[in-house]
């Protein structure tokens, strides 16, 4: 199973954990043709990367949706990430992210389900 990790820096713990369950890891692939060629099972984004490269993420996420490749992200800094609340709301309402995980639910009471 090939997993794409779109992270600013290597994430050794996540990489080791995914490899332990039989996944192969490829870092920072933002081209849908390459993702399809790799045969990616899912693409995992660092949430800060999504916010820093929002237009790049939006373009790729629509293509991933059409290709039925799951989009996963997590945020360790929520709710103090410094992102505007409407950006997070928009990402969740438009269902551009299949799985969104955070270490805290603080501040998420008004988020769409």
Structure, described:
The structure is a single chain. This protein has five helices and five strands; from the N terminus they run βαβαβααβαβ. The chain is globular, with a radius of gyration of 14 Å. With 113 residues, it is of the alpha/beta class. Strands 2-1-3-4-5 form a five-stranded parallel beta sheet. The mean pLDDT is 83.
Topology:
Elements: E1 2-6, H1 12-20, E2 24-27, H2 32-38, E3 40-46, H3 47-52, H4 54-66, E4 71-75, H5 85-93, E5 99-102
Parallel strand pairs: 1-2, 1-3, 3-4, 4-5
Cα Rg? 14 Å
Query: How far apart are the termini?
Result: 29 Å
The biggest beta sheet reads: 5 strands, parallel
The tally of strands reads 5
Notable characteristics:
single chain, 5 strands, 113 residues
Question: Could you provide a short overview of the structure?
Answer:
The protein has helices at 12-20, 32-38, 47-52, 54-66, 85-93, and strands at residues 2-6, 24-27, 40-46, 71-75, 99-102. The chain is of the alpha/beta class and 113 residues long.
